[in-house]
Amino acid sequence: GAVVSQHPSWVICKSGTSVKIECRSLDFQATTMFWYRQFPKQSLMLMATSNEGSKATYEQGVEKDKFLINHASLTLSTLTVTSAHPEDSSFYICSVPPRGTYEQYFGPGTRLTVT
Amino acid sequence: TQLLEQSPQFLSIQEGENLTVYCNSSSVFSSLQWYRQEPGEGPVLLVTVVTGGEVKKLKRLTFQFGDARKDSSLHITAAQPGDTGLYLCAGADKTSYDKVIFGPGTSLSVIP
Predict the structure, then answer these.
(1) What distance in Å separates residue B31's CA from the closest CA in chain A?
(2) A8 interfacial to chain B (CB closer than 8 Å)
(3) Which DSSP string do the residues of chain B spell out, in sequence order?
(4) What is the pLDDT of residues B63-110, one digit of tens each?
């Protein structure tokens, strides 16, 4: 099956710093990738749709200037959390939808802790 | 607005018992998927159901899509500790071909 990787798997940073998370599609090219965040014991919340070669589409309530998304190639999307605060601490997960299907293949997630 | 509800929200059972998890909506979905997520990992796709009334089996797991394509169920027979995890149903968003809407999840704990 499809394989999606994320890096890093976990990161601890100080308040006010920026953190970049990478999502790579290893098995196929993806013009679209999705970024989610998940709080403990809760479901996934879609943050934004990453579009290769164009601007990301953000969900309502998600600050685009805080969560910068870059989809520079057909296999790589990055999410940068700028000026991180403790409330940004969460589990961030990306997914890749194979073309022609309704399914999503998820990365292993990145645990962000802001101190 | 398309919404998916799941019940129960939490479930703790003994090994060997059977259980059913439900996913419901007032909206029609072209397809529904079921995922399982273990702590600290990303969700893993279990199955996709597309046709109303469809039943799919995956070892001890049986998935059913409602005739009206508004609901789905997941039945686990003889649950094992390895079945422990968060079960999520998801449906294709009508407004976007690739986007999916997730239910709130059912957290299952199987006690040895």
Answers:
(1) 7
(2) no
(3) ----EEE-SEEEEETT--EEEEEE-SS--S-EEEEEE-TTS--EEEEEE-STT-EEEETTEEEEE-TTSSEEEEEESS--GGG-EEEEEEEE-TT-SS-EEE---EEEEEE-
(4) 999 999 999 999 999 999 999 999 999 998 777 666 788 999 999 999
